């Protein structure tokens, strides 16, 4: 087997494609304004923003953190990806944005892959823990996630970007999107996707 065929088999192509789309959007500021999740624009009929808002990032540090984790998760899922994963990646942004739209209507703008990342991270952690109940690493990932949500919603109250600085001081961490991410991960397991992806 040559190197090119090995890369073609191992590369998480769906994840790489999404990452490249996010890179193109990041490099074109005018596109960011058209694609960003904007509550008023969505209410006015621009439904595509439910999906495309996840491709928009508020500065390069935000982009690198979100897209970097997204690619790492793509490689971690690697051979565990089922034929359903492209569909999951198509539905996740809409479900998360829909939750933000209906349950956090005061959030006027939202962007980034962090909630999609967190859904996939919880999914991977759940699979890891399911595989080996004695392994401490995966429960620790889950505890850190719950701790992050608690800190975001209580101490931080959704302000700032933690260690990531956004290029717009009006942008805050979208705790509601991160809670929706946890719900999506639970739905993926309840739907049996965890068993199929082994």
Give an overview in words.
This protein has 198 residues and is mainly α. The chain has one domain: Rhomboid-like fold (Up-down Bundle). The protein is built from 11 helices and 2 strands, in the order αααβααααβαααα. It has helices spanning 3-10, 13-27, 29-35, 39-43, 49-52, 60-77, 85-103, 114-131, 137-153, 175-190, 193-196; strands at 37-38, 109-110. The protein has a two-stranded antiparallel sheet. Helix 6 (60-77) packs parallel to helix 8. It is globular.
Short description:
The protein is mainly alpha-helical. It has one domain (3-196): Rhomboid-like fold (Up-down Bundle).
Strand arrangement within the widest β-sheet reads 1-2
Integer average pLDDT: 82
Q: What structural class do helix, strand and pairing data support?
A: mainly alpha
Strand content is under 5%
Q: If helices are DSSP runs of H or I spanning 4 or more residues, what is the number of helices?
A: 11
How many separate domains make up the residues? 1
List unreliable stretches of 5+ residues: none
* CATH topology title: Rhomboid-like fold
CA gyration radius, whole angstroms: 17 Å
Mind summarizing the main beta sheet?
Answer: 2 strands, antiparallel
CATH homologous superfamily caption: Rhomboid-like
Give the beta-strand count. 2
- Roughly how much helix do the residues carry, as a percent range? 55-70%
**CATH architecture annotation:** Up-down Bundle
Question: How would you describe the oligomerization state of the chains in this entry?
Answer: single chain
Globally, the shape reads globular
**CATH class membership:** Mainly Alpha
List SSEs in N-to-C order: HHHEHHHHEHHHH
């Amino acid at each position: 087997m040559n190197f090119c065929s090995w890369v073609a088999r191992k590369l998480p192509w769906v994840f790489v494609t999404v990452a490249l789309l996010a890179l193109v959007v990041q490099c074109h500021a005018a596109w960011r304004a058209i694609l960003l999740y904007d509550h008023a624009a969505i209410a006015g009929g621009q439904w595509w923003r439910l999906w495309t808002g996840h491709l928009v990032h508020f500065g390069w540090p935000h982009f690198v953190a979100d897209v970097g984790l997204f690619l790492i998760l793509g490689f971690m899922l690697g051979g565990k990806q089922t034929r359903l994963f492209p569909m999951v990646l198509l539905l996740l942004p809409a479900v998360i944005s829909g939750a933000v739209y209906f349950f956090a209507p005061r959030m006027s703008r939202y962007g980034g892959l962090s909630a999609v990342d967190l859904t996939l991270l919880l999914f991977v952690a759940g699979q890891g823990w399911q595989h080996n109940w004695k392994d401490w690493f995966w429960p620790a990932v889950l505890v850190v996630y719950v701790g992050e949500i608690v800190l975001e919603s209580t101490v931080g109250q959704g302000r700032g970007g933690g260690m990531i600085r956004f290029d717009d001081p009006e942008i805050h961490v979208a705790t509601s999107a991160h809670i929706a991410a946890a719900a999506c991960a639970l739905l993926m397991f309840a739907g049996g996707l965890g068993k199929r992806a082994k």
